[in-house]
Amino acid sequence: MIDIVATFIFFFAVIDPIGTIPVFIAVTRHLDERARRKVALRASLASAAILVFFVVAGELILTAIRIPLSAFQIAGGIVLFLFALSMIFGEAKPEKEVKLANGGRDMAIFPLAVPSIASPGAMLAAVLLTENDRYNLWQQAQTTITMLAVLVVVLVCMLLASRLHRVVGESGASIISRVMGMILASVATASVLGGIKDYFGI
């Protein structure tokens, strides 16, 4: 049995549903309500497909190219840490990805599904939290279900985007994104330390 609450918080931090709201509003500002719902649903389904792919095939790809999972865990932790630093000190996710909204043709895929929802951090998390040597099939299934539950939260946030944005605002979304960055930095540090321990057999 996995720690469902911790796993949910981890995926919530890397996916950042609240930070997706300003991005969604930016890319759908010229659409009617029905079209917005279609974009939200398509973005959620595309994100789910991408992340489930990494759950199923991520470790297989690493094995095929002979990269130890501990090395990937260290590298992934470093990438997650840099990603977290960009959330804390750089432009927050809503500010950065809203700028991408103006140039995308298929707004449901870019920038909504990738990189806003199925972010690089989320892809890494999908692999690291479903390691075959560390988790059995039932635990991997629990992790996948928890990940999909976070994506349901993302979908609900997008469907209620206008109302939530009025409550949270741009500043609120930015603050939440930075808090998620702090949580993610802590998780990334633990990932690096765990990878070093596994690699050197400490």
UniProtKB/TrEMBL annotation:
Pfam assignment, any one: MarC
Protein species of origin: Marilutibacter aestuarii
Keyword match Membrane: yes
The protein's name in its UniProt record: UPF0056 membrane protein
Chief location bin: membrane
Cellular compartments per GO CC: plasma membrane
Keyword match Membrane: yes
Membrane spanning residue stretches: 6-27, 39-65, 71-89, 109-129, 141-161, 173-196
Localization in the cell: Cell membrane
Membrane topology value: Multi-pass membrane protein
Lineage per the UniProt record: Bacteria, Pseudomonadati, Pseudomonadota, Gammaproteobacteria, Lysobacterales
Protein family: Belongs to the UPF0056 (MarC) family.
Domain of life: Bacteria
